[in-house]
Amino acid sequence: MTDHTASVETEPQAGDRAPGAPLLELRDVRVAFRHGGRRLVAVDGLSYTVAPGRTLALIGESGSGKTVSSRAVLGLLPPTATVSGSIRFEGEELVGLSERQMRRHRGASIAMVFQDPTRSLNPTMRIGAQITEAIRVHQKLDGKAAKARAIELLKLVRLPAAEQRFVEYPHQLSGGMRQRVVIAIALAASPKLLIADEATTALDVTTQAQIMELLRDLQRKLGMAMVMISHDLGLAASFADEVVVMYAGRAVEQAPTRTLFANVRMPYTKALLEAIPRIERPPHQPLPVVPGRPPDLAALPAGCPFAPRCPSARDLCRESAPPFGEGEPGHRWACWYPCGSDGAAPA
Amino acid sequence: MSSNGSQPLLEARNVVQEFVVRGRGGVKGGVVQAVSDVSLKVMPGETLGIVGETGSGKSTLARSLLQAPKPKSGQVLLRGTDLTGLKGRDLLDARRSMQMVFQDPFGSLDPKWRVEDLVEEPLIAYGVGSRTERRRKVREVLDLVGLDPSVYGRRRPRQLSGGQAQRVAIARALALDPALIICDEAVSSLDVLIQAQVLNLFERLRAELGLSYLFIAHDLALVKQVSDRVAVMYLGKLAELGPAEALYREPLHPYTVALLRSVPSPDPEAPKAAAEEAISGDPPSPIDPPSGCRFRTRCPHAQERCAVEVPELRELGTQHAVACHFPVVQRSANGR
Question: What is the pLDDT of residues B58-110, one digit of tens each?
C-alpha cells in the first residue's frame, strides 16, 4: 500500500522516448480470418495513433472491425486470424510477438474492459480473490499487501462499502458495481492504455453516466490513455478526443471529435448520426434511414463498401474504392463525393 | 381518472406483482415488490412508452398485463374485459389481440423452423383459417414487415441478420391481427441504422393498421421517438406519466430529470451535465424498498415528508401526472 500507491497517482512518464511520441500506433493493420475455406478480411488497412492520456473512439456497427482491431492490439485473436501491418506500443512492435512476450503487456501496460461484466468475472470466486489474483500476476506482493492494494483499487473505482464487497460474490452486486470491479481489475497493474469495448453498453443510462464519469476521472488521475469502442456516437461525442468511424473493416472517417461533428464528410457517418433518436426531436418523425445492411466481408463489392447503401453514390463509387486521405488538416475521409462539397448533400 | 369519453384499449388498475425469493436453505428470504400499484391506460391507436432502469419493473409489468403470470392483485382490462378473471381458452382468446415482441429475436425464434412456418405457427395455434388462407396471411405479414416472402420464407433464423430476425418476430406478432403490440426492448440490440429501419417500420404499421403499442425501453430518446405518452417507472412504481413532448421538455419528477441528464448527446458542443447533478448510487433493493417515496434515497431534493408519506400520482398539467411531494419547478428543466 506504499510504493505502488505512488506509482498509481503520478503523471504518465514518457520514459526515454521523445516527448509527444504516440503511446499506441497502428499502421496499415490488416486482420484476416480463414473461415470455411474462405478468406475474410475483418480489418483492412487501419491506421491510428493514441497519445498518452488521450481518448480515441472507434465507432461502427457490428462487423465493422472495431473489436477485432482492438483484440489484435492485445494479441487476443484466435489462431485462424493473421495480423499484418504494424502495431507499436511505446515504440515496441507487437505484431509477431510470441504469446509469452505478449503477456508482458497484456493486462499490465495495456488492459481491456468488455461489455458484459458478468462474463468477465468468475461467478464462483469472491470479488476480493479475483482482484488480488490480478494484482499478484503482475506484482510480487504477499497476501496482506495484495489485499490492501485490492481495497485501494475498489475505493479508486468508488465501489461503495469496498471492505464488505471484498468478501462478496459477483451475483451479490448490481451490474454497475460489477463493471466497477472489472475496471478495478483492469487497473490492477496501472496500465498506460485501457481498451474499453462497449464497456457501458449493457448498463442503464444513469449507471452509464457514472461509469463514463469514473473512467474520465481515472484517466485524469492516472494519466491513462483510452481506446473506446462503441456503436454510440453520442458517447464518443461526449468523451473522446478523436473519433475513427469504421465500416466493413475500414476506417471511413477520422478527425478530432469537434472537427468531425461540426463537419461530417462521409455519408456513412452522417447516416449514423441522423439515425440516432434524439431527445430534442418531437415524437413520430420518421428517422432518415439508409436501406440495406453492411456487406458480407467475404464478398465485398468493388469500389466503396458503402456505395450500395449510399444516397449520394455515383458510378465512380461502385468502380473504385476512394482513398482514405487527409481532405482537411487532421480530418480524413474515404469518399469520392463527401458531404458539404461538390454538389453532394451538405452535412 | 377517466378523462376523454372513448374506452381505453388496455387499462391497468392498481396492478401489483410480487415474487417470493428464497433465502439460504429454502427459507423465505423476502418478497420482491416488482410492480406496486400501477394504473395506466393505452388508448386505441396510441403508443405508450415505458422507461426505467433495470429492475424498475417495466418488463414485469408487461408480463402482468399479459397474465404471464397473473398479477397478484389489481385488474387488467382489455377492451373492458377483465383478463385477471379469465382462465384457459377464454384467456387465450381474449389475449389474442395483445402480442409481444422481445429484445432478442433469435431467442424467440426456433432455429430449426423456416420463416414461413414460424409466422404461421400462431395462426395454427389459434386454429385460424384453412392452410391456404394461413399461407396467404403469412405472405401478407412478411410483405408488411418488408421481407420478400419468396426470398425469406424458406430461410431459417440463422440465415437472417439481427434486423431481419426481428422483422420475422414482428410478422409473427402481426399474424393474428392484434390491436396492441407490447415491445420489450424490441430494438435495443440492433445496430443504429437497422434500429432506425425497425423503428420506422413500427411507425408505419401503426399508421397502416391503427395499432397501439406499449413500448418498453431503457433508452429515453428511443422511447420518445415512437411515443404519444410516456410513463417513467422507478422501483415498481410510476414516478411520472405524461405526454411525450411535455414530459421531456418539462419533467416534473427529480428522477425523470436525472434520467434525462444522463443521456449523452451526439453533439460535442452540448453542455455536459455537471457531476453533482448526475444521479449517484444504484437503485435500492425491491425486496426492501425505502419507506415513503422510493426514490428518496437518491433524490437531491428529499425532505422528511418523503420518508414518511408515499407520494400519490397526481395530475399537475394536462394529462401530466407525477408522484412527488416536491415536483421540479419548471425553470430548471432543460428546455429552451
Answer: 999 999 999 999 999 999 999 999 999 999 999 999 899 999 999 888 888 99
A204 lies within 8 A of chain B by CB: yes
Task: Write the CATH number for B300.
Answer: 3.40.50.300
Give the phi and the psi of residue B58 in degrees, each rounded to 5: -70, -40
Q: Distance (Å, rounded) from C-alpha B149 to C-alpha B135?
A: 10
ipTM confidence score: 0.83
Set of chain A residues whose Cβ sits within 8 Å of the Cβ of B197 = 289, 291
Using a CB-CB cut-off of 8 Å, the residues of chain B touching A209 are 261-262, 264, 273, 278-279
Q: What domain range is B42 assigned to?
A: 10-97+180-189+210-264+276-334
Residue B216 lies in a domain: yes
Q: Chain A within 8 Å of B125 (Cβ-Cβ)?
A: no
pTM above 0.90, yes or no: no
Whether the ω angle into residue B69 lies within 30 degrees of 0, i.e. cis, is yes
Q: How many structural domains compose chain B?
A: 1
A262 interaction partners in chain B (CB closer than 8 Å): 269
CB nearest A282 (choices: B53, B200, B245): B245
What CA–CA distances, in Å, run from A202 to A60, A65, B221, B262?
Answer: 17, 20, 17, 15
C-alpha radius of gyration, chain B, whole number: 21
Residue B80, domain member (yes or no): yes
